[in-house]
Write a structure and sequence with these properties.
It contains seven helices and three strands, in the order H-H-E-E-E-H-H-H-H-H. With 168 residues, the protein is mainly α.
Amino acid sequence: MPIARPARSGVAGVIVLLYAQPLSRIVRLTVDDLTRDGDRVLLRLGGPPSPVPTPVAELLLTWIGQRDNMNTATNPNSRWLFPGRRAGQPMHPRSLGALVTKLGVPTTSGRTAAIRQHVLTMPAPVVADALGYHPVTTTKIATRAGTTWNRYAPGDHSPPRPRQTRDS
């Protein structure tokens, strides 16, 4: 099934909004960063790879088969998710950013909102690992967002049992 021409900007916009990725990292993604694990599709941004929701997975997989700039003599075997016009190079972040913005996706504020939402729903170190951010960065964002995850201590949180004595 062919996808509409703004597919490139739509795919990039989805990665910004779901995974809080800057355009400079998005253009460095390759088709090898998208993997299958049984029925699941995963996107490698950090470790472990992040699951991709089914509608987005379908969009990404379709995009891989219809990427732009693949028919030129310089890019017939390009592994870049967003191949550029220059041989062996990905698309420039500013060029992709202009297309994503034209589509109506605010790249900076969208990425900021996405990472803030992630740190509100899970511990900052988990977000850092999954999305390829530094833990200090996600911890600062979590603190500014007012999350309680930064005060979460791992381990057993059940109430202590009464002490038993020799006489009992």
